Amino acid sequence: MTARFVLAAFATLAVAVPAAAQATQVPEASSMTLFAMGAAGVMIGRRLARRKADRDS
Predict the structure, then answer these.
(1) Dihedral of the CA atoms 35, 15, 43, 30 (nearest 10)?
(2) Number of C-alpha atoms within 13 angstroms, CB side, residue 41?
(3) How many CA atoms lie within 13 A of 25 on its CB side?
(4) Is 26 helix (H, G, I), strand (E, B) or coil?
(5) Inter-residue contact 49 to 2 (CB < 8 Å)
(6) What does the DSSP 8-state code read for residue 57?
(7) pLDDT: is 2 or 21 the higher one?
(8) Three-state secondary structure call for residue 25
(9) What global pTM score does this model have?
(10) Residue 38's CB: how many other CB atoms inside 10 A?
C-alpha cells in the first residue's frame, strides 16, 4: 500500500510540476535539490519502517 501511495504522489507531482513551472521560474539547482531531498526522505522512511517491522516481528 505504501508503494502505491508513493507512486501516486510521484505521478501527481509529475503532472503538477510543468503547470507550476510555467507560472514561476525555478532555478534548476533548487529543483534538483528539492527532488534529491524528497528522494532521500522516502528512502530513509522506508528504511525506518522496515527496521520497525523487523523489530516487531
Answers:
(1) 10
(2) 7
(3) 1
(4) coil
(5) yes
(6) -
(7) 2
(8) coil
(9) 0.47
(10) 13
Domain count, the chain: 1
CB 43 within 8 A of CB 2: no
Angle at 56 between CA 43 and CA 2, to 5 degrees: 35
Q: Which helix or strand (DSSP H or E) is residue 33 part of?
A: helix 28-56
What is the total residue count of the chain? 57
The domain in which residue 42 lies consists of 2-56
pLDDT in tens, 8-57: 666 666 655 555 555 666 567 878 889 999 999 999 999 999 998 888 87
Rounded to 5 degrees, φ, ψ at 3 are: -65, -40
Nine-digit cell at 11? Answer: 505521478
